[in-house]
Design goal:
14% strand, Aminopeptidase, alpha/beta, 7 helices, 7-stranded mixed beta sheet
Length: 286
């Protein structure tokens, strides 16, 4: 049996030349035919779930880092959700209905679990519940291979450099408030990365004059919790960019700010690499 093609692209050499790995899990724009007939809303409305064209930022910034870019749409399956805790019994017949009132995650209760429920103005974007087999297939075909690739890339970087840093790149709607952040850096409140790394990356953002928040309202999701092991020198940070900074006025296509955001992410990658390599040199000298 011919295996299904991967629903993500991997960039970079087989043997890493950088201790930094980049993950772009929410920029996919591939909506499978099996999905379209099940939607209660026009597929065009699901672009609100996408980190619209943040892959253009990532690929413009990439130099020699290993990078994983999901191509399947987030509406099909969310790679930044747990395949165990974030199954939503309102759309997923295989999910445990007891979780709806007991142990369901905040994301599930909000309708943005492993299989998103709320999008495009609909409380439920699916015409029927997905069967357990349908969800298991999505996990096996899309979710598991992506996370295996991230884990392999981090393991390879760690094996060569003694340290690995994952940058999980996202974009966000414009936040509200008197002085809303335009960049949000998440380290799961210190659980996914060392404080020096977080503060050093924050300094890069502040140097460019961009309003920054750390861990609020986005502290990082399943990708960080699954792959970060700071005590073993595998660190992970989530970086959220306000979409208005790099998209056009319609928030649909890359706009005039794309180059500036590419430069920002490049500066972040450079700082992360410098920190990792300096750590490697210090350990070697001890």
């Amino acid at each position: 049996m011919i295996p299904a093609p991967l629903s993500f692209r991997r960039f970079g050499p087989a043997d890493p030349v950088s201790p930094v790995v980049v993950s772009v899990p929410h920029a996919g724009r591939d909506y499978p035919p099996a999905m379209l007939s099940l939607l209660t809303v026009p597929v065009a409305r699901l672009t609100a779930l996408e980190d619209r064209y943040v892959d253009a930022v990532a690929q413009g910034a990439r130099r020699d880092e290993t990078m994983l870019v999901a191509t399947r749409a987030r509406g099909w399956i969310d790679l930044n959700r747990s395949p165990v805790r974030d199954r939503d019994p309102q759309v997923d017949a295989g999910a445990d209905p007891r979780d709806a009132g007991r142990a369901a995650s905040d994301k599930v209760r909000s309708g943005i679990g492993l299989i998103p429920r709320r999008a495009g103005g609909a409380d439920n974007m699916w015409r029927r519940k997905l069967t357990d087999a349908e969800v298991i297939e999505r996990i096996a075909t899309d979710h598991t291979p992506y996370h295996a690739a991230v884990a392999a890339a981090l393991a390879a970087a760690h094996a060569r450099f003694g340290i690995a840093i994952l940058l999980d790149l996202h974009s966000m709607p414009t936040l509200v408030g008197l002085t809303p952040a335009q960049i949000v850096l998440g380290d799961r409140y210190g659980r996914s990365a060392g404080g020096q790394l977080t503060e050093s990356i924050a300094a890069v953002v502040r140097h460019r004059g961009l309003p920054l928040a750390i861990n609020h309202p986005y502290a990082g999701g399943h990708i960080l919790s699954e792959h970060a092991r700071p005590r073993a020198d595998i660190h992970a940070l989530q970086l959220e960019i306000d979409r208005s900074l790099y998209l056009d006025d319609a928030l649909d296509r890359p706009g005039a700010g794309l180059g500036e955001m590419i430069a920002l992410v490049r500066a972040v990658l450079d700082r992360a690499s410098d920190i990792a390599l300096n750590t490697t040199r210090r350990i070697a000298a001890e």
